[in-house]
C-alpha cells in the first residue's frame, strides 16, 4: 500500500466480511486487491482504506450496488465525515440504550403484572371483542368493546393518539398488530391499523382480546436512520452537519433586512432574533426564557422565510407543541399542512392535516378508487383454490400457469384445481397492479399538497416518515428544541439546508429513561451543545444565539430571581406585567385568614415559607422511589383553599411539586378537581396567576437528591404570573446553591415567612 490512502465508509452490510468487500471491489470495480488496505467492520458498517484511484472506482461501482447479498452505500470519509461518524456512533449507541430501557420497562410490566392488574392500572383492557369498522382516516378501523354487550369500559389511561397492541393469548408476540387510537368512549375504543385490512389477522375481529398501551419503536429507528446519514452527508446538509458536530464554526452573517413585519407587536429583542435567524447560513439558536414569546418569534421567522419564497418545515417533539405552531400560522392566514395521524391532531386543526387536504385532490380520489378495486379483486379470490399447502405440491407459479393453459393436472392435483389456482394467481397480479397504481397516485397527491403549502408541520419523528423521503427544505424551525434529544432533532434536520432551533436550555432537559445514557450525554439537547460549543455573547454581532429579553408573564420580583440566576440578569418585565398582583384581580387582604395573611398577602408576589421550625419531616412510601411530606401537603392545600375562599378562581391556581407522591397527597388533601395539581415536569410550558410549590425534602442530613436540579426549580418558579409561594425546609434545601440563593433573595426582595 502506498502512503497516501483514502478512507471509505461502507454502510448497510448484512453479515458480510472483509473478503466480500475485497471481492466486490475486484469484480465490480476492477480494483487490484493490493490497492485495498485495512478493513474494519463494526456491525453493518465498515471503513476501508484504499489508494485514491481505487477509492474513486469503488465508490462509482459499489455505491448503491451489492456486496455479498447486501445493497450498500459507499462514500469517501473525509476529516469532517470522520468527526461526524464519531459523533453519530456515540449517539446511536445511546439511542439504542434508551430504546432497550423503554422496551425493558414495558415488557417487565407485562411479564410481572397480570392482564387484570394492568387493566386496574389503566394500561390495558381485557375481555374485549373487535368489530370491523371499515376504512377511515389514516387506515382501517376496528372498534373494541367488552365481550359482554353493553358493558362499560373501566377507567383507562388509553387516549386518542396512543399506540395500542392487540393480542389474543400472548401479549409479547412479535407479530401482534399495533394501531393508533382514533376514538375513546365509555363503551369502546376504536383504533386505526394498516390501510390494507388483509394484513390484519382474522382473530382481531373476534372475542377474547387484550388491548395494551404499547411502546412506539419507530421513533428510535428514525433517529438511528438520521444519524447514519451524517458521516456521508453532502450538499447543503454537510455544512449544517459540520457546525453541529463541532467540525466547523458557523459562517458569520449580518442581520437580514426586514421591511414588513407580520406581527408589528414584536419587541426589539424578538425582532433582532428574527433578523439573525433568517440570515443564518447554517444554524441559529433563539433562546427564549420563560414568558418571552418563543413560539411567537418562531412563527414570525417562519412567515419571513415564506415571504422570501423559501420552503419551510416546522417541527417540535410533541404533538401539542406542533399544534400550537399550526394554530398560530393558520390564524395568520398561512397555507399550512400538518403531517401525522389525524387522531393525534387537535380536532379544530384537522382541516389542515394532510389527510383532510388529500381528500380535495383528484389524484388521491383516484388512488382510493384503485384501492377499492383491488380489494374487490381480492374478494374474488375467496371463491378459488389458493395455491398453497396440499394443492401446490412444490409447483412454481409458472408451472401452474403452464398446466392451466394445457388443461392438465399434475402430481395428483386435478385440472379444475390447477385452473382455479391459475385464476387465483391472475387475480393476485391484478390486485398488486392496482395497489401499485393506488400508491403511485397517492404519492403524486401527497407531493402536490406538500409542494403547494407555505409551511409543512410535523413532530420530529413524523418528519422521518416516507412522506418526506428525498425532500429537502430551505429552512427548518424546531420549536421547544431543548425538550428534544439531539437524535430527535436530527430526524427533521437531515431534510434541511438551514436550521433554527428555538428553546431554553436553562429549563428542563429532555426526559431520559436510561440513567447511563443520560450520564453519557443523551440528556444534552442539540441546542445546549451548540450554545456551549459556539457560545458567544448574544449581544455580539454574528452570535449563533439570540436572547429574547422581554417577558410578558411574571411580576418583576418573581422574574428577578430567574433573571439573575439563569439569564445573566438580562431579562426585563413588560409594563403590562411588571407590577401586577393578585390585588389587581380584586383579592382583598381582609378576606384572608389573619394567621396566614403574611403568606397570602395579595401585594406580596414572592413568598418563601420556611417550614424548618415546624415538625414537617419527609417520608417515603413502601416500594416507592418518590417522596412525600404530609405536613407540607396539608399546609399548601390549606393555603390554596384560603385563596379560593378569598375569590381567586380555581382555574387561576396551581399546586406543583417535583415529587409524584407529594402531588398525589396534595390532590387528596385539597379535595377538589377544580384546581390543577401536577409535577413540576408536567407543568412545564404552562402558567397560572398563583402557583404554590411544595419542595418536600426535610431531613437532618440535608439530603435533597432529585430536588438538586436548578433548572427544575427555574421551571417551577416561573410558572407564576402574579404570586409564587414556595414552601420548604430551608435548613434542608439550602444544601443546594439555587435554594440557598432563593431564600436569600426572598428575604431581601420578596418575603421570607417562618410559621
What is the overall number of helices?
Answer: 24
Unreliable segments (pLDDT under 50, ≥5 consecutive)?
Answer: none
- Estimated structural class: alpha/beta
Radius of gyration: 30 Å
Tell me the strand order in the biggest sheet. Answer: 15-16-14-17-18-13-19
Number of strands: 27
Distance between the termini: 81 Å
Shape: globular
Q: Beta fraction of the residues?
A: 15-25%
What is the helix fraction of residues, given as a range? 25-40%
Description of the structure:
The chain is 38% helix and 19% strand. The chain is globular. Helix 11 (362-381) packs antiparallel against helix 14 (415-452) and helix 13 crosses helix 14 (415-452). The longest helix is centred in the middle third of the chain and has 38 residues, at 415-452. A hairpin with a 3-residue loop joins strand 10 and strand 11. The protein starts with 5 loop residues before the first strand and ends with a strand. The strands form 6 sheets. It has a 7-stranded parallel sheet with strand order 15-16-14-17-18-13-19, with helices on both faces. Strands 7-8-11-10-9-12 form a 6-stranded antiparallel barrel. Strands 24-23-25-26-22-27 form a 6-stranded parallel sheet. The model has no long low-confidence stretch (mean pLDDT 92). The protein is built from 24 helices and 27 strands.
Amino acid at each position: 500500500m502506498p502512503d497516501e490512502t483514502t478512507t471509505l465508509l461502507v454502510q448497510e452490510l448484512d453479515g458480510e466480511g472483509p473478503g466480500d468487500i475485497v471481492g466486490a471491489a475486484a469484480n465490480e470495480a476492477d480494483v487490484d486487491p493490493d490497492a485495498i488496505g485495512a478493513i474494519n467492520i463494526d456491525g453493518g458498517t465498515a471503513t476501508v482504506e484504499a489508494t485514491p484511484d481505487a477509492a474513486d472506482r469503488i465508490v462509482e461501482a459499489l455505491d448503491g450496488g451489492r456486496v455479498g447479498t447486501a445493497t450498500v452505500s459507499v462514500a469517501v470519509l473525509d476529516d469532517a465525515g470522520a468527526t461526524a461518524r464519531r459523533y453519530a456512533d456515540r449517539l446511536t449507541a445511546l439511542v439504542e440504550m434508551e430504546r432497550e430501557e423503554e422496551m425493558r420497562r414495558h415488557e417487565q410490566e407485562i411479564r410481572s403484572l397480570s392482564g387484570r392488574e394492568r387493566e386496574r392500572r389503566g394500561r390495558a383492557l381485557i375481555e374485549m371483542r373487535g368489530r370491523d369498522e371499515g376504512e377511515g382516516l389514516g387506515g382501517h378501523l376496528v372498534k373494541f368493546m367488552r365481550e359482554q354487550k353493553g358493558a362499560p369500559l373501566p377507567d383507562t389511561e388509553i387516549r386518542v393518539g396512543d399506540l395500542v397492541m392487540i393480542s389474543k393469548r400472548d401479549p409479547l408476540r412479535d407479530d401482534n398488530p399495533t394501531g393508533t387510537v382514533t376514538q375513546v368512549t365509555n363503551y369502546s375504543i376504536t383504533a386505526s391499523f394498516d390501510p390494507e385490512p388483509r394484513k390484519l389477522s382474522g382473530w382481531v375481529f373476534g372475542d377474547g382480546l387484550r388491548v395494551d398501551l404499547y411502546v412506539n419503536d419507530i421513533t428510535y429507528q428514525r433517529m438511528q436512520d438520521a444519524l447514519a446519514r451524517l458521516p456521508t452527508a453532502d450538499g447543503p446538509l454537510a455544512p449544517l452537519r459540520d457546525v453541529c458536530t463541532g467540525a466547523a464554526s458557523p459562517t458569520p452573517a449580518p442581520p437580514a433586512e426586514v421591511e414588513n413585519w407580520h406581527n408589528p407587536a414584536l419587541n426589539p429583542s424578538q425582532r433582532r432574533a428574527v433578523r439573525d435567524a433568517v440570515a443564518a447560513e447554517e444554524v441559529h439558536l433563539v433562546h427564549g426564557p420563560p414568558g418571552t414569546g418563543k413560539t411567537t418569534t418562531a412563527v414570525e421567522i417562519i412567515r419571513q422565510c415564506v415571504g422570501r419564497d423559501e420552503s419551510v418545515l416546522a417541527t417540535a417533539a410533541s404533538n401539542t407543541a406542533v399544534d400550537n405552531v399550526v394554530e398560530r400560522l393558520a390564524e395568520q392566514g398561512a397555507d399550512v399542512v400538518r403531517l401525522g395521524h389525524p387522531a393525534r391532531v387537535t380536532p379544530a386543526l384537522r382541516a389542515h392535516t394532510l389527510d383532510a387536504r388529500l381528500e380535495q385532490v383528484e389524484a388521491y380520489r383516484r388512488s382510493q378508487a384503485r384501492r377499492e378495486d383491488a380489494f374487490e379483486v381480492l374478494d374474488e379470490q375467496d371463491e378459488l383454490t389458493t395455491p398453497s399447502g396440499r394443492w401446490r405440491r412444490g409447483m412454481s407459479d409458472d408451472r401452474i400457469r403452464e398446466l392451466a393453459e394445457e388443461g392438465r393436472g399434475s402430481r395428483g392435483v386435478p385440472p379444475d384445481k390447477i385452473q382455479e389456482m391459475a385464476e387465483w394467481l391472475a387475480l393476485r397480479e391484478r390486485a398488486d397492479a392496482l395497489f401499485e397504481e393506488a400508491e403511485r397516485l397517492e404519492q403524486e397527491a401527497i407531493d402536490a399538497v406538500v409542494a403547494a403549502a407555505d409551511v409543512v408541520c410535523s413532530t420530529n419523528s413524523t418528519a422521518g416518515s416516507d412522506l418526506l423521503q428525498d425532500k429537502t427544505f430551505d429552512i427548518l424551525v424546531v420549536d421547544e428544541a431543548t425538550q428534544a434529544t439531539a437524535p430527535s432533532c436530527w430526524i427533521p434536520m437531515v431534510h434541511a439546508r438551514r436550521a433554527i432551533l428555538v428553546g431554553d436550555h436553562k429549563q428542563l432537559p429532555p426526559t431520559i429513561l436510561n440513567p447511563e445514557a443520560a450520564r453519557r450525554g443523551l440528556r444534552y439537547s442539540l441546542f445546549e451543545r451548540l450554545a456551549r460549543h459556539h457560545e458567544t455573547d448574544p449581544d455580539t454581532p454574528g452570535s449563533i444565539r439570540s436572547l429574547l429579553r422581554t417577558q410578558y408573564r411574571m411580576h418583576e420580583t418573581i422574574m428577578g430571581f430567574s433573571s439573575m440566576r439563569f439569564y445573566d440578569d438580562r431579562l426585563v418585565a413588560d409594563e403590562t406585567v411588571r407590577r401586577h398582583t393578585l390585588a389587581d384581580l380584586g383579592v382583598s387582604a381582609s378576606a384572608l385568614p389573619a394567621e396566614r395573611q403574611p403568606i397570602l398577602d395579595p401585594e406580596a408576589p414572592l413568598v418563601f415559607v420556611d417550614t424548618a421550625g415546624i415538625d414537617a419531616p419527609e417520608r417515603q412510601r413502601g416500594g416507592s422511589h418518590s417522596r412525600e411530606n404530609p405536613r407540607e401537603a396539608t399546609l399548601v392545600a390549606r393555603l390554596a383553599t384560603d385563596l379560593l375562599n378569598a375569590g381567586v378562581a380555581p382555574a387561576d391556581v396551581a399546586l406543583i411539586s417535583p415529587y409524584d407522591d407529594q402531588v398525589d397527597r396534595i390532590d387528596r388533601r385539597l379535595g377538589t378537581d377544580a384546581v390543577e395539581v401536577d409535577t413540576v415536569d408536567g407543568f412545564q410550558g404552562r402558567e397560572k396567576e398563583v402557583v404554590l410549590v411544595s419542595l418536600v425534602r426535610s431531613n437532618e442530613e440535608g439530603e435533597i437528591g432529585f430536588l438538586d436540579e436548578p433548572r427544575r426549580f427555574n421551571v417551577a418558579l416561573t410558572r407564576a404570573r402574579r404570586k409564587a409561594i414556595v414552601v420548604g425546609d430551608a435548613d434542608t434545601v439550602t444544601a443546594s446553591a439555587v435554594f440557598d440563593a432563593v431564600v436569600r433573595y426572598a428575604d431581601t426582595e420578596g418575603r421570607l415567612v417562618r410559621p
